[in-house]
Design a protein that fits this description.
Layout lengths: L1 E5 L2 E5 L9 H10 L5 E5 L8 H14 L3 E4 L5 H8 L8 E2 L2 H9 L7
Parallel strand pairs: 2-3, 3-4, 4-5
Antiparallel strand pairs: 1-2
Length: 112
């Protein structure tokens, strides 16, 4: 995982699978950023996420609301599963950091 700062956004780039072995590290990083204006998890390079990752995203979404965004390519396997689980209905998935920041400023913005 790689941490970057993009303006007001704290970006955590997941560079490997997000599963029971790696989700605790992501959760710890997000907890470390408590109080941040915007936290973006970039899954663009993540090929696999198990139920641990999905449950983590649901908890983070509930805790942070509009201060939490996810970036992933629209054709990725992870996005397809997020959509199957209907998490995309409550957690908008952006195709880029720019879209994620737009959604944070305007949650009703139309993407795509």
């Amino acid at each position: 995982m790689v941490y970057d700062r993009e303006g007001a956004a704290h970006v955590l780039r997941v560079l490997e699978d997000l599963d029971i072995a790696t989700a605790p590290a992501l959760e710890a990083e997000i907890a470390r950023l408590d109080g941040a204006e915007l936290i973006i998890v970039d899954l663009s390079r993540c090929d696999y996420m198990d139920s641990t990752g999905f449950a983590l995203f649901d908890r983070i979404r509930k805790a942070l609301g509009d201060r939490f965004r996810v970036v992933a390519g629209s054709a990725s396997r992870v996005v397809r599963v997020l959509r199957l689980m209907t998490l995309d209905r409550v957690l908008p998935i952006a195709a880029s950091l720019e879209e994620a920041e737009l959604l944070a400023r305007n949650p009703n913005a139309r993407l795509g």
